[in-house]
Amino acid sequence: MNAGWSRFNVASVSVGFAFLYLPIVLLVIYSFNASRLVTVWAGFSTRWYVSLIHNESMLAAAWVTLRVALLSATAATVLGTLAALALTRYTRFRGRVLFSGMVFAPLVMPDVIIGLSLLLLFVALGFDRGIVTITLAHITFTMCFVAVVVQSRLLSFDRSLEEAAMDLGATPVRTFFQVTLPVIAPAIVAGWMLAFTLSLDDLVIASFSAGPGATTLPMKIYSQVRLGVTPEINAICTILIGIVATGVVAATLVNRRRELRRQRDEQAAMRTDG
Amino acid sequence: MAGAAPTASRPPAAGARGGPGARIFAAVAGRLVIMVPYAWLLVFFLVPALIVVKISLSQMAVSVPPYAPVFDPGGGLAGLLDAVRQFSLENFAWLMDDPLYINAYLSSLMIAAVSTALTLLVGYPVAYGVARAPATIRPSLLMLVILPFWTSFLIRVYAWIGILKPEGLLNQFLLGIGVISQPLVILNTNTAIYIGIVYSYLPFMVLPLYATLEKMDGSLVEAAQDLGCTRTGAFWRVTFPLSLPGVVAGCLLVFIPAVGEFVIPDLLGGSQTLMIGKTLWNEFFANRDWPVASAVAVLLLLVLVIPMMVFQKVQADAQEKGR
Amino acid sequence: MKSLGSIRRSFAPWNDPGAVPYIRFENVTKRFGDYTAVNDLSLDVYEREFFALLGASGCGKTTLLRMLAGFEEPTAGRILLDGQDLAGIPPYRRPVNMMFQSYALFPHMNVWGNIAFGLRQDRMPRNEIRQRVEEVLKLVRLEQFALRKPHQLSGGQRQRVALARSVAKRPKVLLLDEPLGALDKKLREQTQFELMDLQQDLGLTFMVVTHDQEEAMTMADRIAIMDRGEVMQVATPAEIYEAPASRFVADFVGNVNLFEGTVAGREDGRTRIADDRGMSLLVNEAGGAPEGAGVAFAIRPEKIRVSSARPAAAVNAMEGEIYDIAYLGDMTVYHVKLPDGRIVKASALNAARTSDDPMTWNDRAWISFAADAGVVLTR
Asked: C293 with C262: CB under 8 angstroms?
């Protein structure tokens, strides 16, 4: 695609981004609203953030959410990476079609179906619902996203690197750990971050698989929202947005710097004598 | 030494370095890579799906668990057969007779289709614009497109409540500049749902579109113009047709989950808006009728099976072409 | 006794009946499903040879190399290295190392790490590794780049790292897959000689796969010309060029003129080849072809002389018209059209800056050549 912006391009991108960000910006602004009525501006105030800190149930929910996200992201990354490896490296094994279908179905399946089916499983097995079941549910539905990310990287992975390693004396297992894994590591990390975020944000599946005493932050926010819009909700949302935005921007900047440095290195090398 | 060994992506480790122990390890490791995720998915994906089907064939009961029959492992084969005989399709018959459910399915499909079209309408220019952006700002623009995706779905939908309410910010703005004299009723209507779906699923449409457009050979458009096409002509005759794989992928990524959406119709829709995700939720949590909820889920899956298979095929084709 | 070509080779184990081949391909076949990549191929390579597999894409040369490296197993036949059957031995246990076409440098390791990788797999003691890596770095003149990562190196430097990495373990055989493909012309010429020197200094057996004739002719002791999974001819560059075994080989390497005809009899120890359009040539060897057999006389352009007047003492001479001229600076190539419509390519080295006999398009001209200026091909 050739670069070169027309007026239409500029307009459509600007409108698109305005549409994407305006609601978020408004939400953030009104979290500093002194008045209780979210839609009537009454002056700048941080009282809602203060009240959040004292909100025990909200903090407890945040803690639950964090633990579930960390655990499930890590397990999902391992499982998703294994699944991606299985699909790209082993082209023929019994039940491959079924496996492939199971790995990619959760990508598009509505959350309510996933949530319902997992809950029915837990009931049938007699599991008590709580943090453990939420974690198991999250692992199941996020591992497919990890698999997609890692598989995409594995498909573009240069197999001759592995052949070179084996040619130099490394067994297949050693080749995997010393060559393949380090090279695809960024994709695995990206997969982890994706799984973490999906777990952090999930409402429907958590609602189905949770039990008494295990409330996640999205569940808590949702129950508050049903009662009505309050600036306190705006405040917790702003905090979450802030954390995520910082993370994404930081990651992008780090990547950009690394890319630029790499380009500069390559150009410098081209100029030296071959 | 063994004769000609079969070719494999992993050469046979006969007499491998480290001795027979290493050889067994390599073989076991290979098996594990497939077996571990396979086993997990069988237990946590396939079996639950089968359970949903089984319960959709059961009846509601006032018991724990709230359905009958319940497989009793102690009953043995006879008990199993007995339970199976109690299966019936009566839940499905009931669903298909009740206009409420039929309408809910149809309405969900319609709302999802309309929303997908709207998302395409909004998302295509954005994807096209980013693809044509100068290379220096393109990565930043992409990051800005993806950033909302990382923030919570719930939060983003919630943000719209404050905007679309009768006393909300949109109405305040429009009243303030005098465009309308009465506040618009948007919240709790289908319009709000469309806005919500478009807003939440926009990144899912923009990203595959961008990926396809970005890879496109720009010299094709130049060739078209060289042969006499106008800018817009070249777009409709060259760029758009070539971007269809991205369009299809984006539409499927939006349409399929949108059919079963729950959060958006619940928060932004009204009591008249019928979406099957909400219906399922209500059947389960409000009515505590697990068998019916399961039947709703099974029917929803059947409705979605074809788009899902199309999606799997599109995925597989994209991989074949070596993405 | 005249020798073929202009180089006298002292190293020629293939002529020694007592020499034992170091690498032997014995009736090797490789099939991928319905497609046969290598077809009942037998080949011997001797120790310390610089051997080239030359052929167009898809001829099976890379597949053959990969079978020796261990990345593919033959469907039939066997491969012997120093007397040992390699069947079932995985690549990481073969005393063979390969230099990949794409170099395949590990991007997450620096030059040192790349070179030391193979040595680490052998669990060499650390100080020995250090010695060997430094030795190899000096060999390829990359000492000051030891800590750089592959993306910080130019194409030529990466190629040297790939080479260094592949010789670090002192393998019995070094396989090179299109080693000079990615280099620009100047660098390629320089590197060709470096590779030859390296091979001599280290005393290794090299097996190179290439589609570039010049590369093979320059570097190799012997070349195997391959086509569609089979070997067409195995010989020294001079033999391949001056004594091709078939029309395919004659046409594949360099330029050639093929005069098709039948054996029409013998005169004074020479053979006459004629056709029904009036051609009549007197040539030295008939390749064992009987009278009446259909053959082709293959003669290289530089063996044909072009003159505006009929040469006095030429054994074979024909008159024609200059159809096209390509002036290349160091030589001039004439395309001469004979009365029967055949176009003959003849080239002349511009050994002097001026010419006594300049010619131009559409001039009448004579082409002439000696009886031993070409070979008779029966295939």
From this structure: yes
CATH code: domain C13-246 is 3.40.50.300
C125: closest CA of chain B, how far (Å): 18
B103 and B212, same structural domain? yes
Q: Which residues of C touch A268 (CB under 8 A)?
A: 152
Distance CA B316, CA B322 (A): 10
Sheet of strand C316-327, all strands in order from the earlier edge strand to the far edge: C305-307, C364-369, C316-327, C331-337, C343-349
Judged by CB atoms closer than 8 Å, whether chains meet at C104 and A274 is answered as no
Fill in the amino acid letter for C29: T
Give the full edge-to-edge strand order of the sheet including C96-99: C96-99, C173-177, C205-210, C50-55, C222-227, C230-235
pLDDT at A252: 83
Residues B47 and B137 in one domain: no
Domains of chain A: 56-228 (1.10.3720.10)
Q: What is the CATH number of domain C255-377?
A: 2.40.50.140
Residues B104 and B64 in one domain: no
Residues B244 and B120 in one domain: yes
Q: Is residue B9 part of a domain?
A: no
Q: Examine the domain organization and report whether B55 and B118 are in the same domain.
A: no
Which residue of A164, A183, A269 is in closest CB contact with C157? A269
Kindly state whether C106 is in contact with chain A, defined as any CB-CB distance less than 8 angstroms: yes
C301 touches A: beta carbon within 8 Å: no
* DSSP character string of C93-116: GSSEEEE-TT----TTS-HHHHHH
Task: Quote the domain boundaries for residue B143.
Answer: 91-320
Going residue by residue through chain A, which has 274 residues, state the pLDDT in tens, using 9 for 90 and above.
Answer: 777 778 888 888 888 888 888 888 888 888 888 777 766 777 788 888 888 888 888 888 989 999 999 999 999 999 999 999 999 888 778 888 889 889 888 888 888 899 999 998 998 888 888 899 999 999 999 999 999 999 989 988 989 999 999 999 999 889 999 999 999 998 999 899 889 989 988 999 999 998 777 899 999 888 888 887 778 888 888 888 888 888 888 888 888 888 888 888 888 877 765 4
Task: Please report the residues numbered 243 through 262 in chain A whose beta carbons come closer than 8 angstroms to any beta carbon of chain B.
Answer: 244-245, 247-249, 252, 256
Q: Are C239 and C5 in contact (CB under 8 A)?
A: yes
- Please tell me whether residues B53 and B180 are part of one structural domain: no
Mutate to test the interface with C, among A157, A161, A168, A258 (most CBs of C within 10 A): A168
- Give the length of chain C: 379
User: Pick from B64, B85, B106: which residue ends a domain?
Assistant: B85
**A contact residues 26-55, partner C, Cβ 8 Å cutoff:** none
Q: What is the DSSP string of C220-251?
A: -SEEEEEETTEEEEEE-HHHHHHS-SSHHHHH
Where do the structural domains in chain C lie, given as residue ranges? 13-246, 255-377
B300 close to A (CB below 8 A): yes
- B151 pLDDT band, cuts 50/70/90, is confident
Phi, then psi, of C330 in degrees rounded to 5: -80, -25
Strand locations in chain C, DSSP E? 23-32, 35-45, 50-55, 76-81, 84-85, 96-99, 173-177, 205-210, 222-227, 230-235, 257-267, 270-274, 280-283, 294-299, 305-307, 316-327, 331-337, 343-349, 364-369, 374-377
Q: What is the interface pTM, i.e. ipTM, of the complex?
A: 0.84
H or E, element range at A131: helix A131-155
- Residues of C with Cβ-Cβ distance to B15 under 8 angstroms: 88-89, 93
Do B56 and B160 lie in a common domain?
A: no
Rounded CA separation A184/A188 (Å): 7
Tell if the CB–CB gap between B52 and A120 is shorter than 8 Å.
Answer: yes
Q: Is B25 on the interface with A (CB under 8 A)?
A: yes
Whether residue A183 lies within 8 A of chain C, CB to CB, comes out as yes
| Cα angle value A61/A65/A66 (rounded, 5°) | 120
